[in-house]
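FORM 7B - TANDEM STRUCTURE REPORT

SECTION 1: FIRST PROTEIN
SEQUENCE AND TOKENS:
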Amino acid sequence: PGLRVIQSLSAGVDWLLPKVPPGVVVCRAVGVHDAPVSEWVVAVILARRRRLLEFWDLQHRGEWNRDIAEAGDGWHHPIDDLEGTTVLVVGLGSIGRAVAARLAPFGANVIGVARHPRDDARSADELPRLLPEADVVVNLLPLTSETEKFVNAAFLERMKQGSLFVNAGRGRTVDTDALLAALTSGRIHAALDVTDPEPLPAEHPLWHAPNLFITPHVAGAVTRWESRGYRFAGEQIRRYAAGQPLLGIEAGTVDLKLS
């Protein structure tokens, strides 16, 4: 009965909210996962642009094949760098800003998208115009009633031929059937750290979809994430004790009145 605040150590709290009693504040771990998740995003973009997984396969076949670097076909595309690449970040929160900061030294053109326009982000209403221009689309949306299956068939059909879709947000923000269709057609490539369903069953067709790289929700699972989380939780406790505003209060939960 005395519970007033729940501090999550995850960036998203959609899984937690249905279990929270009325009148309790829920806080996200703002900033804790920015570095590892944004590094994962940059890593998979580089791996796709440089076609590292395909060269890994060639290595294990003992095959010296430069053709893969010099010509593309309907399913594969030549090696490319990041300079001048347009990267669209959908869901420009703290992780999205960390992605933008890490891509800047490569000379990429990063465009952030948020629900409402602001100095560092375009409005979501502009997506129909922005998607065809992007070489890479990074989805970092949280899961809400408004974002469930936000990335649908219409969204994916607007993406540029041969572009890369990266999901490090929430699996249920993507229509899995629509993504499977887009991958199978050869129109786009994808890298997923989150899926719907999750965990992904062994028999699920995503495992065998072409042009797809999957990791099992480990983008933020680095050796130092727990120490970062505990430091953040400690700062939240200090703020609570001092009567200061807490960080990362989840929208829709009650405002905390300290006295």
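SECTION 2: SECOND PROTEIN
SEQUENCE AND TOKENS:
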Amino acid sequence: MSLPLGKIPKEILEKYILKLTGERSKNVVQGPKFGIDFAVIKLDEGYMIVSSDPVTGAEKEVGWYAVNVSANDVATSGSKPMYLESVILLPQKSKAEDVVSISKQIHRASKALGISIIGGHAELTPKLERKIVITTAFGLAKRYVTAADAKENDAILMTKTAGIEGTSILADVFKERLSKLGDKLIMKALRMMRRISVVKEALKAFDTGFVHAMHDATEGGVLGGIYEMSIASKLGFLVYENAIPVALETNMICKALSINPLKLISSGVLLLSVDPYGVDLVCNELRRIGVRVSQIGRFKKGKRIFIKKDGSENIIKESVVDELWKLLGE
């Protein structure tokens, strides 16, 4: 059975993989589940939150990306990421300078987030075409939320703008194809990578007490992230295209490459399921710390409906394939 690039499809995961959990433990409160960003392990006091993530599409600053994506997943529980391990896999012709550079990126990104590096592994791997960095982040919590905790009639909020991470990656990987857009726009797009952390806004929103669920919009972008939350929470949704903000740089790059920014990897975008009575408070708290936030729809029973700008309805019935993989697979 052939598979598309990117995440393994939901159907394969649920039929064959998610049940393969090794020895069962009563301390595993949250194990593998589609749409869930992290595992939860019960401790004598509180919980440990654990999440692993790879970075496979980036060329530059791959270490920086890798720290932020797993730290983001831990933060969507409402917990501060505290510890990190990394695995660095490099193509066969890599040099010592390559592993040193990536390790320094991991160090800088971890220090910026207050994360301690506790171990890892690095190697040159035969037949590997590009650098791959995998990180596992750990946090400690007294309470938490998951992407499966959205409630009917909750408002769906998102921070920042769609396609943040993908915009930065595309500006680097396809810089020659995009040269007609001008150096100024490309430089602004590259700098968007510095916005991929959601740790600050996730912790601030969680502290309001009105957030039922959070999710980092990674592969599949904003639409993919909302779909994953809805599946995990066993709900439908109503989402409006014209309510989803897209930065000029993202819009221009996506038009030039003929892709949909709402399906582009969006690390840096935090999706929140918020009690309707707490929407104003959550929005005000996020804006107070300088984070843009938009209300883009609501969770409901029934179908997963995406209202396009022209007013037509699109029913989302399956996992969203990230647009980045379409380009990298060409």
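SECTION 3: OBSERVATIONS ON SECOND PROTEIN
The chain has a mean pLDDT of 96.
Residues 135 and 309 are 38 Å apart (CA to CA).

SECTION 4: SIGNATURE
Preparer initials: ____
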